[in-house]
From TrEMBL:
Organism: Alteribacillus persepolensis
UniProt cross-references to SUPFAM superfamilies, sorted A to Z: FMN-binding split barrel
Occurrences of domain Pyridoxamine 5'-phosphate oxidase N-terminal (ranges): 15-93
InterPro entries named among the record's database cross-references: Pyridox_Oxase_N, Split_barrel_FMN-bd
Protein name per its UniProtKB record: Pyridoxamine 5'-phosphate oxidase
Domain of life: Bacteria
Pfam short name (any one): PNPOx_N
Lineage of source species: Bacteria, Bacillati, Bacillota, Bacilli, Bacillales
Amino acid sequence: MANTVEPSLSSDLLRLLRRETFVSVATVREETGTPDVHAISWVYAKDAHTIFFSADSRSRIVRNLKVNDGVVISFIANGSTYAIRGRAAVEKEEMPNIPIKLALVKCVIEEVRDVMFYGAKMVSAPAFEKIYDLEAARKLDTQVMDELKRASSG
């Protein structure tokens, strides 16, 4: 049902956000105070109230969150589109055991909103594929997701 609002992730959405998933992250641009949207896939839901994700340490996501902690994570699942609003903070500028400079970000969920417009449903989820060295991508994905899981267990 469109336009429902919950204070936390449902068990189904929690399950979906416990694997590498295409999401968009909206932050507030540090210079202008306007929305900034980013696509990422390294995301892991610790529980129904907390999501960890990773982004390049030099990215606008990280710079923006240092000034304004407001964030919206949106994704498509279960025939609908969801917007997760929360407060996010950079937990680590660099994650250990990762060969590139990636920040660890923790988002505390304030609301989960079904934002699909009335009378419609999504018929497929977005699909993506890595276009660089597939073995290197698989290795890096595994390392990052393992670090996100490790961070969420602490």
